[in-house]
Amino acid sequence: MQILLPLVTLVSVSALLISAAPIADPSQLDSSVYDTLNEAGEPDWAAIKVYEDSKKYFHEPGSDDLLGHYDTRYFGELLSYEGKRDAQVHMMRAYLEIFQRMGIETWIAHGTLLGWWWNGKMLPWDWDIDTQISESTLEYLAKNVNHTLHTYTAASSTLHTDPITRTYLLDVNSHWKERERGNGFNIIDARWIDVRSGLYIDITALSETNPDVLPGLLSCKNLHRYHVKDLYPMRETMYEGVLAKVPYNYDLVLVEEYHEAALVTTEFEGHAWDLTTKEWIKQQESRDQG
Q1: Has this prediction a pTM greater than 0.85?
Q2: Is 40 helix (H, G, I), strand (E, B) or coil?
Q3: Contact between residue 177 and residue 197 where contact means Cβ atoms under 8 Å apart
């Protein structure tokens, strides 16, 4: 079977890593007065440190399925259904292509992996795009390419017939060294952010946090656990028209997270699976076409 290559043109690797001005830690953007004064009305520095250490690094303009999936720094307005789809596809293509060119291993995970299982594409209703990396890769990102901007070009898009150019920020959480869940504010280790819209890809690292008791068991800070044998060796595949990697035992990984129903249910979140086109179709569109 012939593999269709993506109609994507990327600039050279040397041009991909554009040094960006350091992005301010969101904690520095908080101008409110700390409620951490001692009885004498002076700053309680120990309490301030606890407050700072507990703060969330990444911020979103809201917490629902819509506003909860934009980065506050780059959010301007909510994208339409079609606009979101277009932005997500190019954001994912850019991420996979650029990581591959930099020689950095990453693979798709969670709902993104489920979308791949169905038809090699994103689930159209899904706002979450998830990828995973190893702990050693996270350290490399933090020390070598944190706060860098990456330029991507494509011959066209679903909304534009002319070539497009977009820019993405690779931002690593300042709490990346912490490998336990903690208060849950910093379970996302890094993000790939579309600076045009504020949409992002969540990047989480897997670590062997208890090797003496549970050797070979990897987990992220959101308590998803995987056996090394189920992840490696990674399988190469195609996702949204570009090369990607998925876990070796992807079926088992998906069933453990979503149960068997996720692999057979053909109506979900206002979409229906079309056996002919192998696409998820919005049900209103399906009724209109019928």
Answers
A1: no
A2: coil
A3: no
